[in-house]
Structures are given as C-alpha cells and as structure tokens.
Amino acid sequence: MIKKLFTYFAQFPSREGILTMAVNGTSPMPEYDEVLADIELQTDERRIDGLDNYAYGQSFEELQARIDKCVGSFLYADYGEFQVQTDGRKSLEYVERMAVTVAMKLGNNVDAIERMIASDRTLAMLAEIHAWLMADVENGLIDWADRDSLDMVEIVPFVASELRSIGWTLMFNATSPDVLGTHERFRSFVRENY
After folding, report:
1. Can you tell me the distance from the alpha carbon of 28 to that of 136, in angstroms, rounded to the nearest whole number?
2. How far are the Cα atoms of 111, 148, 190, 193 from residue 178, in angstroms, in the given order?
3. Local confidence band at 94 (pLDDT 50, 70, 90 cut-offs)
4. Rounded to whole angstroms, how far apart are CA atoms 92 and 104?
5. Can you tell me the distance from the alpha carbon of 84 to that of 92, in angstroms, rounded to the nearest whole number?
6. Model pLDDT, residue 119
7. Is pLDDT of 45 > 70?
C-alpha cells in the first residue's frame, strides 16, 4: 500500500526530482529496483508542469532532510494512520488520513510579492492534483480512495519557515475496501487452522 501511494504521486513531479531520492542507487531489497523501474516507465511526461521535486514520508524530519537538498517547487505526500472498520458486508473498510502538499522553496531575500506569487502557483498546482485524483478514482485507476473521499477535503496553507517554503496542503481521508487484504487473510487462517 505504501509503495502504491509512492508510485501514484511520483507521476506528478519531474523524473529528475524523483530519482534524486534514490541516494543509494541500489539496495538488497528487491522492491527497490521495482520502484525505480516504475518511476522510469511512469514519468516520461509529468502531469504537473513546474513541479520540480518529490518528498515522501511520515515525519517532518524526513521532509526537512529531503527539502534541504532541493531547489524550486516540491510535492510532499504524507501518509498517516489507518482506521479500520467493518463495511457492513462482513469485510473491512480502511480510512487513511492523507496530506498532499505542493510548496515552493524560497530564497532568503524574497519579498511579499514573491511569496504571494509562490502561494498562487502552488495553490494552482495543488488544485490540479486534486482534479487528477478525482479523475483517476472515477476511471478506476485508484483503489485506495473512493470518490466521496475526494469530495470532502481541506486545503490549508503550508508555511514552514525552517524549510524556507510556502505552499498549500490538501488533506483528506482516503476510504477504500480492505486494501491490505486483512479480512481475506483472516478467513484463510480460520479455514486452515480450525
């Protein structure tokens, strides 16, 4: 699930801005090469013009370490906790709290007009990502969120002086059927062991 989200949001920024995340270049984990291959295939043409870099993770420290090495705009996909509940049909439904930020790293000497322009540009890019999310759900390309998840969102300012960045964050609860296959595993354990 985490890899699927990473790959989905990797289609928005530039390929170069994504591949710089692969600092090691190789790994004993076989999935590492799979992810790099997916990025190579997927990002021939980015979906959002002007979106330069990509950051992905669960903590502000991860974001800060990544953004310190970036120049220009960035997309930060922040995945959070899952709430699991019954769906009323003897299966499970997952609700994951997600935040997608588009921001621009600014220099030390920017003025109020430059900050306003950065805010305007990043809000436009974030609105485009929101529209792509809705279209991809509608076309069955996303299984980790339903259409209702993307109709009820919050868009809040992202101002991080320690990152010298300004932008906007789209926050939503991605609701989906049992994307981790927990209920199916549960049923197989019951059949096999009892």
Report:
1. 33
2. 48, 17, 18, 22
3. confident
4. 38
5. 7
6. 96
7. no
pLDDT number for residue 138: 92
Q: Which residues lie across from 119 on neighbouring strands?
A: none
Can you spell out the DSSP letters for the chain? -HHHHHHHHTTSS-HHHHHTT-SSS--SSHHHHHHHHHHHHHTSS-SSTT--EEEEESSHHHHHHHHTT--SEEEEEEEEEEEEEE-SSSSEEEEEEEEEEEEEE--TT--HHHHHHHHHHHHHHHHHHHHHHHHHHHTT--SS--HHHHHS-EEEEEEEGGGTEEEEEEEEEEEEE-TT-HHHHHHHHHHHH-
29 vs 4, 10, 54, 58, 167, CA distance in Å? Answer: 16, 20, 21, 20, 34
Which amino acid would we find at residue 103? Answer: A
Q: For residue 107, what are its two tokens?
A: 């220099």
Query: Locate tokens 């997309």: which residue?
Result: 75
| The two three-digit tokens of residue 151, written as one number | 């109709």
CB 172 within 8 A of CB 153: yes
Q: What is the pTM of this model?
A: 0.85
| Block residue for tokens 């959070």 | 80
